Amino acid sequence: MLSDLYNRPIYNLRISVNSKCNLKCFYCHSEGVRNNGKKEMSIDDIMMITRLAASYGVKAIKLTGGEPLLRDDIVEIVRSLRIIDGISDISMVTNGHLLKKYASKLKNVGLKRVNVSLPTLDEKRYRKITGSSLKPTLDGIKAASSAGLNPIKINMVLLKGINDDEVDSMVSYSVKSRTLLQIIELEPIRISSKFYSKYHAPIGILEERLAKISKAVYFRDDMHKRKIFELEHTKVEVVHPIENTEFCSHCNRMRVTYDGSLKPCLMLSNNQIDVRKYLESKDYDRLRSAFLQAVIMRKPFYTG
């Protein structure tokens, strides 16, 4: 297993398979990459990068977009990743709108679990945030549960003045739907400082409140300072990356952009290594050199 210069092992690869989305969430950072009109990676491209990463100890793959379920070949992508030696966990981040259609198919070819973006349970708020209807996402979560894509994590980006009064109702929903609630701090990526100031909700206040009603509070072993609050009938995970040195110092993830670049850190926009030419020419040696260079470039964003 590879480690970067800060002794952080890398065993998680987050692969964006496209830049298209069927929603228009106003806080979306698109994995820190703007849609530049470039062609998305093919299945062969994705497999070539994943095989290389697996040879260096990467075990977990998370598929993202855009919206990954908009790819016509998404089932085949998962099927192809499952047969790569060393890959033991394949998951996906989705808005859930197409999950009802794909849940069983994806489970059958090797997808283990899903994270579903759900910022609110209120139809009007959902339309304001995403520009679309709430029902397909709720139906998708039910379908994922029935298919056995568990544990299902609900990703709730906390937005001041928009949904920060819904934590209790989201907790109740997670109990009812047998899902895990993950509350995520708004990240200042691809948004203006004015926007960030307007909608960023202090996550520490929420953590203090959750601690008072929890039976236990502990950290995830693989990412320190990602707190788990064990409530009476469910668990709430709080993702607090902003100005959090412990969070950054335990990062174990490398990112791959939809157009074929290695991205060592989500928070930076000037650290990508374009490997498209190596994918197109099937130049495994140069791809490996670029991958190792990306590992060397990794450093904690927040260092105190």
Straight-line distance between termini:
27 Å
Which percent bin holds the helix content?
A: 25-40%
SS summary, helix count? 11
**Rg over C-alpha atoms, rounded to the nearest angstrom:** 19 Å
Domain module tally: 1
Mean pLDDT: 94
Described by the principal axes of the CA atoms, the overall outline is globular
Q: Biggest sheet: strands, sense, closure?
A: 12 strands, mixed
Strand content: 15-25%
User: What name is given to the CATH topology?
Assistant: TIM Barrel
H/E element sequence: EHEHEHEHHEHEHHEEEHEEEHH
Description:
The protein has one domain: Alpha-Beta Barrel (TIM Barrel). The protein has eleven helices and twelve strands. The protein has helices at 43-55, 74-82, 99-109, 123-130, 135-147, 167-177, 193-199, 203-212, 245-249, 276-280, 284-297, and strands at residues 12-16, 60-64, 89-94, 113-117, 153-158, 180-185, 216-220, 223-230, 235-239, 253-256, 261-263, 273-274. Helix 1 (43-55) packs parallel to helix 2, helix 2 (74-82) packs parallel to helix 3 and helix 3 (99-109) packs parallel to helix 5. The longest helix has 14 residues, at 284-297. The radius of gyration is 19 Å and the shape is globular. The mean pLDDT is 94.
Describe this protein with a few key phrases.
single chain, 304 residues, alpha/beta, TIM Barrel, 12-stranded mixed β-sheet, 11 helices, 35% helix
